[in-house]
Design brief:
The complex is a heterodimer of chains A (238) and B (402). By secondary structure, chain A is α/β, with parallel strands linked by helices. Chain A contains 7 helices and 10 strands. Classes of the chains: A alpha/beta (238), B alpha+beta (402).
């Protein structure tokens, strides 16, 4: 199935720190087709963030295989992984993770800098991404001058500015009030409608229900893979 | 990322903590300042040697009579061992241009009315003032006729002239030396000092007069021999030594004369700066090492503080080289800024030193280049490890800060 965005097989992750050894993932088999919005739920410590960081090539799995858009990336070294991150992955974190001394525009430009996009084009694309999340009038603001919801919208703009193959969001609305949460979800829905592939961790059922599927994790495994509906925009593979 | 952007990023990061940066760069500032001061002073000393040689007369061999202790334990009573014949023989050596006899008379007092002063009084042959590039500031210098006719005239240095006559013109006045009267015919132009000896505190009489009235006898204790070129100095010293050995025939390896190169005396005088230079070099080296370690330390702290930033950048696609470049650039910018401040401080210190110690300083453009290069090298060397450490931080930290 070469056209899958994500295909993992028996993904395992063990953290060894001294005496302690934690098995955060114990064999995850997951496939995500283009255009899916996959929600990941599960109790604290069940391995959701660990799964996301492996899918985002922030960490290597201890064992198992991971095909990202058909390419085996599980054993990529730092430089190759960095390249995968800047070309095919967009991250949104619970705590926004904006650089505090950089403006909204500069934050959104960051991934384009590492992708070596020339300055003018970078500015243009970053401004357009901010516009698409409704922040056209906040380009020069520092994160400290923005509300939590606005900061998270900057973070989303930053994640999509490179047009990644997959958007990974770890509790993107976890720190937000219900109004800001609704705004972020609207943006994600919109991206989904336009065919983006998204994997999103959340603790809230009503947030998860924005997805096409909900994965329920427990103790490092996907216990239930609940399909809600077909992907909205993507053609159903035959 | 372009170089300008990389630099801008580094400046932005440093500005956020500029006081810390400044304190960190202090070692580099002091180190570079020391280097600048050091090179300014040593270049000044080198140039000083050159100007001293010009000022004091080039290509001169000093021939001096010496006391000797004979094998029977008796020390000879005088160092006036150079005879007229010796000097004539030296003058016949092919490389010799001129031979000027001199005889210092110690402990003499010169007086004018009730005012008295005690400069170094020397009887000299007429060539002496000429080969030492002495010129007249007032009146004239000693002439051949002064010497031939034994005129009781005297040429004063600026110091005794001022002591005896204040601001008034000295020329034409009479001064007393012992119980004789001498006419002041000139005051020579200022010559400065050489190795702690003030060359302006002298008075010169015709050698014939000095011999007659002051000490009698025909021998002198010194002669300055001018040779044709600097290359002739060493061979001429050897030639004079063998000539003197031949003429004096003392035996037993004893020599009642010595020869010296005036250039070496000048070099030795400038060597006074060399102790200072060594200390400055040591201070500079220590400051640079300590400063470098300080920079390494602060960069390591900075890497720890900015673990999250590094994680974010990595999550967004920065690879280890980007991060390493970023932190190395910060260290380099810090050191370059320190280098610039150090150059400024060094120039100021060099100026203060030259006005306090009277040493000449010369600022060569090369000095500034070397100073900056050193600062950059320190940044590169001590910034490398923290930068590599930043580059090796795991990217997953961004995720784990949630
Ligand atoms: N770097 C690490 N070193 C050691 N153990 C780790 C590390 N990261 C995660 N773990 C452990 O792995 C397990 C899974 O953690 P993970 O962060 O994936 O859980 P999670 O499902 O995201 O939880 P939460 O809902 O609280 O965010 C936990 O037991 C955690 O303590
Ligand atoms: Mg988590």
């Amino acid at each position: 199935m070469a056209d899958l965005v994500i295909a993992t097989e028996d993904l395992r992750k063990r953290y060894d720190s001294g005496e302690l050894s934690v098995e955060a993932l114990r064999g995850v088999d997951l496939t995500v087709a283009p255009g899916e919005l996959v929600a990941v739920m599960g109790p604290s410590g069940s391995g959701k963030s660990t799964l996301l960081s492996i899918l985002g090539c922030l960490e290597q799995p201890t064992s198992g295989s991971y095909l990202l858009a058909g390419e085996e990336v599980a054993r990529f070294d730092e430089r190759k992984a960095a390249r995968v991150r800047r070309e095919r992955i967009g991250f949104v974190f619970q705590s926004y993770n904006l650089l505090p001394r950089s403006t909204a525009l500069q934050n959104v430009e960051l991934p384009l800098i590492y992708a070596q996009i020339p300055r003018d084009e970078r500015r243009r694309r970053a401004a357009r991404a901010l516009e698409s999340v409704g922040l056209a009038d906040r380009l020069a603001h520092l994160p400290s001058q923005l509300s939590g919801g606005q900061q998270q919208r900057v973070a989303v703009a930053r994640a999509i500015v490179t047009e990644p193959a997959v958007l990974l969001a770890d509790e993107p609305t976890g720190n937000l009030d219900s109004h800001s949460e609704a705004e972020i979800l609207e943006i994600l829905d919109d991206l989904h409608d336009r065919g983006a592939t998204i994997v999103m961790v959340t603790h809230a059922r009503e947030v998860a229900e924005h997805g096409t599927r909900i994965l329920h994790m427990l103790d490092g495994r996907i216990e239930i893979d609940e399909t809600l509906r077909a992907s909205r925009a993507a053609p159903v593979p035959t | 990322m372009s170089l300008a952007e990389q630099l801008g990023l580094a400046v932005q990061a440093l500005r956020a903590n500029w006081l810390r940066g400044l304190l960190t760069a202090l070692g580099v500032i002091i180190g570079v300042a020391s280097l600048v001061t050091l090179t300014a002073i040593s270049a000044g000393a080198r140039e000083g040697v050159a100007t001293d040689l010009k000022r004091l007369g080039p290509n001169i061999v000093l021939l001096d009579g010496e006391f000797i202790t004979l094998p029977n334990g008796v020390t000879t009573p005088t160092d006036r061992t150079l005879t007229r014949g010796d000097l004539e023989a030296v003058a016949r050596l092919p490389s010799v241009r001129a031979v000027a006899a001199r005889q210092v008379v110690e402990g003499l007092t010169i007086s004018s009315g009730r005012v008295r002063t005690s400069p170094f009084v020397s009887g000299v042959s007429p060539d002496y003032l000429r080969i030492h590039n002495v010129t007249a500031a007032q009146g004239r210098l000693l002439t051949r006729d002064d010497n031939r006719f034994g005129r009781e005239v005297i040429v004063l240095g600026s110091i005794p002239a001022r002591r005896l006559f204040r601001a008034a013109a000295a020329v034409g006045h009479t001064v007393r030396v012992l119980d004789r009267e001498f006419t002041v015919v000139g005051v020579y132009a200022r010559r400065g000092s050489l190795g702690g000896e003030n060359l302006d505190n002298n008075a010169f009489l015709p050698l014939t007069v000095a011999k007659r009235v002051l000490f009698g006898g025909d021998n002198v204790h010194g002669a300055d021999v001018q040779v044709a070129s600097a290359a002739d100095v060493a061979p001429t010293m050897d030639a004079i030594d063998s000539l003197m050995a031949e003429r004096h025939k003392i035996g037993g390896g004893l020599e009642d004369w010595s020869t010296e190169d005036q250039a070496q005396i000048i070099n030795a005088a400038q060597a006074a700066t060399s102790t200072f230079q060594t200390l400055t070099l040591a201070l500079g080296a220590i400051a640079l090492i300590v400063g470098g370690i300080g920079i390494m330390n602060i960069m390591l702290v900075s890497v720890t503080e900015r673990t999250r930033e590094i994680g974010i950048r990595k999550a967004l696609g920065a690879d280890p080289r980007h991060i390493q470049g970023q932190f190395l650039t910060e260290a380099l910018v810090l050191c370059t800024a320190g280098g610039a401040l150090g150059v400024g401080l060094g120039l100021a210190v060099a100026r203060v030193v030259s006005s306090l110690a009277g040493w000449q300083t010369v600022i060569a453009p090369g000095t500034l280049v070397v100073a900056f290069a050193t600062a950059l090298a320190v940044g590169l060397f001590f910034g490398f490890y923290p930068a590599r450490r930043a580059a090796r931080l795991p990217p997953a930290v961004a995720m784990r800060y949630d």
